[in-house]
Amino acid sequence: RSKRRGRGQITVYSQEIAQEMKRATQLEQALRNAIIADEVDVHFQPIVDLRNDAVVGFEALARWCDADLGYVSPSVFVPLAEERGFIEALAEALLRKAAQAALSWPRELFLSFNLSSAQLMDPATSTRLLAIVNQVGLDPHRLELEITETAVMTDTGVAQKIVSELRAAGVCVSLDDFGTGQSSLGRLRDFSFDKVKIDRAFVSRISADRASEHIVKAIVSMCEGLELEVVAEGIEDVSEALILKALGCGMGQGYFYGKPADAVTTMRYLSDRYRDVAVR
Ligand code: C2E
Ligand code: MG
Ligand code: MG
Ligand code: MG
């Protein structure tokens, strides 16, 4: 009897796995089509200088809404594109769009773009990215690339080479989601970064939890010594902003300062703040 139930379970599981695989393949096909049809969009979230609350740049965040599947999070479709081997095509389309949008912003604002782990394993990445930025006509000094600790875990040699080539071309490199991955401190020594982005997990608990406040304080002081700029991610209210300012955190980002918005909304936002920015 138990044997039968066991077999039944196996059937259920393999059905679930088959369903899951079918869904992933549907998602893959829809995403491939969306890239070809130019339907994957990019939104922009402001990054502010916490010393004076001025906007200093925007992070580009991929957005995709499929007619049948609805909204799909980039934390789902970016890994899928990596797994199925077409992250290059997706990343290039996104960077081209993002860089194009940044051309209309005031020149002092930077564009921050997320790199995926697969891109950091491919030695051609720096050349490809710089070619796109040049084609579009964006000054590489206005570009920042965000990489995560996990992305530089596997093949540090190639990743280090990519990072140093990009930095040599004037691109800033930041370590994203700091504090959540493994061997964070070792990465800071092995790579030359310009910025560290403290993960939202610490920021979201900073008003309620002394431990998070102490951790952020330690990160800020360590980055001061290493001459790295610190950005706090996921600031959602004024009390979080005030604590971070008091701790000496230089930059911030989060819903409190602005949610990710499309290129047109971003231009409207900028034209309200800059006299010489006009919405076309
Ligand atoms: P990330 O790079 O750490 O981006 C920050 C995420 O936090 C974004 O989620 C953003 O919308 C969200 N966020 C910002 N402020 C707040 C806040 O105050 N509260 C809360 N609850 N969330 C906030 P999103 O857009 O869903 O992106 C998720 C992740 O997907 C990103 O994390 C990044 O790792 C990846 N991703 C997004 N776009 C791209 C892309 O173009 N290329 C690559 N390779 N990865 C991307
Ligand atoms: Mg990021
Ligand atoms: Mg992050
Ligand atoms: Mg919170």
TrEMBL record:
All copies of domain EAL, residue ranges: 24-274
Transmembrane regions: none
Location of this fragment in the whole protein: 186 to 465 of 465
Protein's name in the database: EAL domain-containing protein
